[in-house]
């Protein structure tokens, strides 16, 4: 985490421009500029600012936002916090829920028409930029079809009185689902394609193992082999890809939130970069790093759940 903080701090302070001049405007005099610079600690040498920032982060203080007039960075992050995890969770649910059955089905029907269709679909999904998928979905389903909203996001736990056209909790849930569909497809398409490809290849590898061939020789049905012999053993590579896709999804969330005008963490970091808000850029970057680390930890724990031979206790596993 210290590496992320250090690299991000050096990079954002290397960007040409002055956030204070952006804040006070072109007509401000020298005294106002210096006062604003002193207010946010930007009048200090870079190494002093770095040491102070690292010390403050260690205590949970991420500083104050220049763009939002001195509001604490943690306040802005917590304002947007539920949005991006909800978007990530819905997109991964969609991706995993569709990719694993599709990959298994393609492996079971290797080299026939269904397999080719699944491979072509996953190839298109991997090759297509997320923002282009989002724009296409907006044009088709929002502009021409008028079936789904093109922008914004309603949280499922929002007060019905604050949601337009909602009279009950059920109406809020339906509105939230309609707003989530297009962004989830946009963000989940790449994950779905990548997971489908690795699920297919991993299942094919397991289905060609000697113990699977032996089970077939004993007359075990193909359905039982898939369910009891092959599926669980094929999921470790899939789990690895899902963990790696966390990085892609976090980056994709920034684009998806921009395309659909969703006020999440991705939109917040874009605002911070445009305003050269150093503290806000640092805070949002650290947040993304924490989410990625937590995702990797969850994947590591699931390794041991799926494969009993893997143990982090040092004695039980092999």
From TrEMBL:
Short name of one Pfam family: BPD_transp_1_N
InterPro entries in UniProt: BPD_transp_1_N, MetI-like, MetI-like_sf
Main location class: membrane
Transmembrane annotation, as ranges: 86-105, 117-144, 172-195, 236-260, 280-306
Compartment(s): Cell membrane
GO BP term, example: transmembrane transport
UniProt GO cellular component terms: plasma membrane
Coiled-coil features, chain-numbered ranges: none
Entries under CDD domains matching the protein: TM_PBP2
Membrane topology note: Multi-pass membrane protein
ABC transmembrane type-1 domain boundaries: 81-303
UniProt keyword list: Cell membrane, Membrane, Transmembrane, Transmembrane helix, Transport
Signal sequence interval, chain numbering: none
Family note: Belongs to the binding-protein-dependent transport system permease family.
PANTHER family: DIPEPTIDE TRANSPORT SYSTEM PERMEASE PROTEIN DPPB-RELATED (PTHR43163)
Record protein name field: Peptide ABC transporter permease
The organism's taxonomic lineage, starting at the top: Archaea, Methanobacteriati, Methanobacteriota, Stenosarchaea group, Halobacteria
């Amino acid at each position: 985490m210290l590496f992320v903080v250090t690299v991000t701090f050096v990079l954002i302070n290397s960007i040409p421009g002055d956030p204070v001049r952006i804040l006070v405007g072109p007509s401000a005099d020298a005294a106002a500029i210096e006062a604003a610079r002193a207010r946010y600690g930007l009048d200090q040498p870079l190494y002093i600012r770095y040491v102070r920032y690292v010390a403050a982060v260690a205590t949970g203080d991420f500083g104050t936002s220049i763009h939002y007039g001195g509001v604490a960075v943690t306040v802005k992050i917590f304002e947007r916090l539920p949005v991006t995890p909800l978007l990530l969770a819905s997109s991964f649910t969609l991706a995993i829920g569709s990719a694993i059955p599709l990959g298994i089905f393609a492996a079971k029907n290797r080299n026939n028409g269904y397999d080719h269709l699944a491979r072509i679909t996953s190839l298109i999904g991997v090759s297509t930029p997320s923002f282009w998928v989002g724009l296409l979905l907006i044009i088709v389903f929002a502009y021409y079809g008028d079936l789904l909203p093109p922008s914004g996001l309603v949280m499922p736990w929002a007060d019905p009185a604050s949601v337009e056209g909602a009279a009950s909790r059920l109406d809020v849930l339906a509105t939230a689902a309609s707003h989530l569909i297009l962004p989830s497809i946009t963000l989940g398409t790449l994950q779905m394609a990548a997971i489908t490809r690795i699920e297919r290849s991993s299942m094919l590898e397991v289905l060609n193992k000697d113990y699977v061939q032996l089970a077939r020789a004993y007359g075990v049905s193909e359905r039982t082999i898939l369910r009891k012999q092959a599926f669980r053993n094929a999921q470790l590579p899939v789990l690895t890809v899902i963990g790696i896709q966390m990085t892609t999804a976090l980056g994709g969330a920034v684009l998806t939130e921009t395309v659909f005008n969703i006020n999440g963490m991705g939109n917040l970091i874009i605002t911070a970069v445009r305003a050269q808000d150093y503290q806000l850029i640092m805070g949002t970057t650290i947040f993304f790093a924490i989410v990625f680390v937590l995702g990797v930890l969850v994947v590591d724990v699931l390794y041991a759940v799926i494969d009993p031979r893997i143990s982090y206790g040092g004695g039980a596993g092999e």
